[in-house]
């Protein structure tokens, strides 16, 4: 069945010099929107950041640029010139969605006045994604992934048991990604409203805000019992210390597993699994059927588990545990995912070619039975203003 | 929306739609409570960890449930009875969206196959949220946030080189998977508004997580190669830029820190100016950005020896006044109670709850005015809206409603709230 992509015909203009704005553009491009990426003559910031295909710095070989900009077109505009700023303005008001990562002071420099723009083009959705938002006393604070993770309350919850070591940021650029995600949610809400009213408007998302609402237990433990949670190695920050949850396996890999003693079903599954390896020790004894006894024996059980996992390879611990109905997770490295049988069976990765470099790209983060997503195509060369697309196919669930 | 979802991902996903006006009907089982109703995050709960549950908890006291299910309607159905399932089918027939995040197969055991759901409502949108997706050899694997973080690679890429991964200290992927499920439901509605056709959504949290790995996913294929090497992961250094100083430095007070990320020569000169340490300008180890990157351990010592004398917030203010990217490492307490930015943008809002009292909630952080939320209530008590939903929305007669209560298909609110069945 050939069907139009979800955002077929939607025109997006993206003025983004960080991954938050670029990822928002990618989420729209991925489902078929035409995304024009505005770049300065020397190319977008992400072209100047590695890592590099082939390991050599080259603005046409940035893997960061390739990751965040597949399927977009590149529109070079010199924003240092009056005519360039006029062109940007014209592109913005003609767009269905205009994405901007400019903070307020930069907006002034560029002549981007969102209240004037929304009056001039009421149907356009202006999506601003910035470190601290367009309003408030810190709106023009210089941000970065690390800085916004820090101010949001997310950073302090991650790191090691040893608090002489500072909090350690989650990898991958999660303040950018969380903000891009809320930018996308804001655009979707506005698109739904526009279907009903024809009116767009301003969507103002901050990395700081987006992460501040994403701290989970930290927020709730502060709001309810007024406790500040304490970070622990590779597991939830909690009001008081809990047992380690990462176990080193025989082959040097780690698995994640939290010993849950309260649920009898899980307890029996665990004991059966250990017993299969002849390592259930005393855990089959009658007194362990009592939850309070299990609680009392927690350190003993945790010690047995450490020994048990140290005898298994990571993949075996993961798959055997899961087959026993236990939520064991293996700590995969990115390179482990590319030939993962489950992901392969789901055709999650799609081969693409960037300037002769073969790469597997991840599929979209959702699948629809009746909405196709076009296969990913290469990110544009600087100034390449045509959007290239493969034919849209339905990725069935 | 008929919402069968529970625990983390599902309720958070449907919450966003409830915030913005969707009529979300949360269907609950009294015998197997939503785990979040059991978690002992209570106003007077003290320092209990979230695993430290009461044997028979009050289902209406949990702060986390209040947080996750605000703006929703709550009903209690016994899905073990055919008559309970029949009521659920009537809810589905009157809904635009069905949402669930059970292990693959649970809905089918209730007879609610994709075909049956579509029979009940031909243009329905069904959102199925799992860790691994509905298909594939590991579709039945169990997961929650930290397991998803492990399997998708996010834990491995977080930490200091030469140590075990530090991962992410929360169920980050419960949040992010939820956000993408909210997105998917809205995408399906956007489509249906054009075509009149519904859709089945299959979202795998692990596949969401892999999308969040960022450029490292291409780096392992075409750049620096596999990550199991001595200089990986980057810790608090910039992941791909050779810049320094870039890290988290001690500030005055116990476990107080400040993040500084200098990415340009001009930011470096501004930092040195605030530090007032001219020796840094002449030190041959710190002349170029590449010098500072290669000698960052020495540089981090120097910067940390300076920052430790200052209050993190005051130092952030000073550094930011000079254009240096710096952020106090704030706790949730700071963010809720002290942060003027969070306050000015009303990131948190309050609602009253009949058992819990007034509490603050994290809003959907979408400002600007294009769309506005409607925060009309805190989370429903267990079974609180049975009458409104079954008699009001479904139009049941008194006799029918009472009969369904009598046979235990609908659990009456008063009984439900006290846990009696």
Regarding quaternary structure, how should these chains be classified? heterodimer
Please list the strands of the largest sheet of chain A in the order they lie side by side: 3-2-1-4-5-6
Based on secondary structure, the structural category of chain B is alpha/beta
Topology order of chain A in helix (H) and strand (E) letters:
EHEHEHEHHEHHEHHEEEEHHHHEHHEEE
CATH class of the domain at 2-210 and 375-418 in chain B: Alpha Beta
Quickly count the helices of chain A. Answer: 15
Strand order of the largest sheet of chain B: 3-2-1-4-5-6
The H-level CATH homologous superfamily of the domain at 2-210 and 375-418 in chain B, spelled out, is Crotonobetainyl-coa:carnitine coa-transferase, domain 1
Biggest interface goes to: A-B, 156 and 158 residues
What is the helix fraction of residues of chain B, given as a range? 25-40%
Distance between the termini of chain B: 26 Å
Silhouette of chain A: elongated
Q: Give the low-confidence spans of chain B.
A: 415-421
Write the CATH architecture name of the largest domain in chain A. Answer: 3-Layer(aba) Sandwich
Q: What value does the Rg of chain A take, in angstroms?
A: 25 Å
Global mean pLDDT of chain A = 95
